[in-house]
Amino acid sequence: LPQARAGIISTVEVLKVMEAFVNEPNYTVWSDLSCNLGILATLLSHTDFYEDIQVFVRDVFSPIGERLGWDPKPGEGHLDALLRGLVLGKLGKAGHKATLEEARRRFKEHVEGKHILSADLRSPVYVTVLKHGDSSTLDTMLKLHKQADMQEEKNRIERVLGAISQPELIQKVLTFALSEEVRPQDTVSVIGGVAGGSKQGRKAAWKFVRDNWEELYNRYQGGFLISRLIKV
């Protein structure tokens, strides 16, 4: 992919290579593919090809998603659980119909306390329902954040809130980032999630940082968090 971004080889050639990995069982390979496709989607988000890349993601990730399924299989290892979370999150965010429907069903049961989601499925399910959700979905997620006993769960929710798509809800997430509900050291994660969530999110996050620069700079005093914020 770096060669494609530098214009040395065509993006089409890169995508053809990616298609060849459709039967690959290795987590590290899929993690690399996912990261590179994420970069491509970001680069294409300002073009007419953005929806095409989502279709490509659905096509490439659906066979491995069907093989892994939603529930752990006897004897599978830690990397299989990681791979399942990665693949389902990628499919859900890209709008794969069956994945979206199942994520919504499991999210509802989780919220109602009927069937609590395992830790490795929470991020992919949260991302999926938020990406294709509304104000009610965001309100439910903020309620889960408030009710969470463990900081790990609060952080997990904070990292995915930026997946929400509607402009007014993106603003709500950014305002939440600076609220007392979020620890100062975790604010950057929320803003970063918005910046990485969508084209609209990137623009909104950059404006939010500029508008609140004095407060953010005073909060972090030129430490590593301010550099991380600028990078995202």
Automatic annotation (TrEMBL):
Q: Coiled-coil intervals in this record? A: none
Taxonomy, superkingdom: Eukaryota
The residues that cross the membrane are none
Gene Ontology CC: one annotated term:
membrane
Q: Which residues form the ERAP1-like C-terminal domain?
A: 4-231
Which GO molecular function annotations are given, in alphabetical order?
metalloaminopeptidase activity; peptide binding; zinc ion binding
Per the record, the GO terms for biological process are: peptide catabolic process; proteolysis
Question: Keywords for this entry?
Answer: Aminopeptidase, Hydrolase, Protease
Alphabetized PANTHER family for the sequence? PROTEASE M1 ZINC METALLOPROTEASE, PUROMYCIN-SENSITIVE AMINOPEPTIDASE-RELATED
**Family label:** Belongs to the peptidase M1 family.
- Protein's name according to its UniProt entry: PSA aminopeptidase
UniProt source species: Erythrocercus mccallii
Q: What is the lineage of its organism?
A: Eukaryota, Metazoa, Chordata, Craniata, Vertebrata
Q: Which gene is annotated as encoding this protein in its UniProt record?
A: Npepps
